[in-house]
Amino acid sequence: MLVVGIFGSACCKVMVEEYPEGEEASFVALVDGENALLLILLKTINELGMGIRGPILVNGWVLSVTYLDSTVSILVLRPIILPTVEGTAVEGCKFVGSLYAGLVIEKKSWMPKLTDLET
């Protein structure tokens, strides 16, 4: 889209605010409109030829994640998932379903950075 110029002069410059370096992961939570429950933490795999053997691969996710522990899940649940759940309720549109948070767990700080949030 940028190379072809679909967006006209808006394609001339691209600004990257931040490029967090670290492990990609996915956080999936079940939401009932008021509460959220961690369903699973997954390591994101972008290439099948990364030499990974053993764990089950589903849509680019590896189901066994050793570096993501309960501390990281709290660091995702409290500042990212729960405010989203509360915000939709305040707006009069309680969300019920599953929330997917794409993350990068930073190398230096081990703090999760949100890259995308989907339902």
UniProtKB/TrEMBL annotation:
Keywords: ATP-binding, Ligase, Nucleotide-binding. It comes from the Eukaryota. The keyword Cell inner membrane does not apply. GO terms for molecular function: ATP binding; ligase activity. InterPro entries: PRibGlycinamid_synth_ATP-grasp (IPR020561), PRibGlycinamide_synth (IPR000115). Residues 3-116 form the Phosphoribosylglycinamide synthetase ATP-grasp (A) domain. PANTHER family: PHOSPHORIBOSYLAMINE--GLYCINE LIGASE, PHOSPHORIBOSYLAMINE--GLYCINE LIGASE, CHLOROPLASTIC. This is Phosphoribosylglycinamide synthetase ATP-grasp (A) domain-containing protein. It comes from Eucalyptus globulus (Tasmanian blue gum).
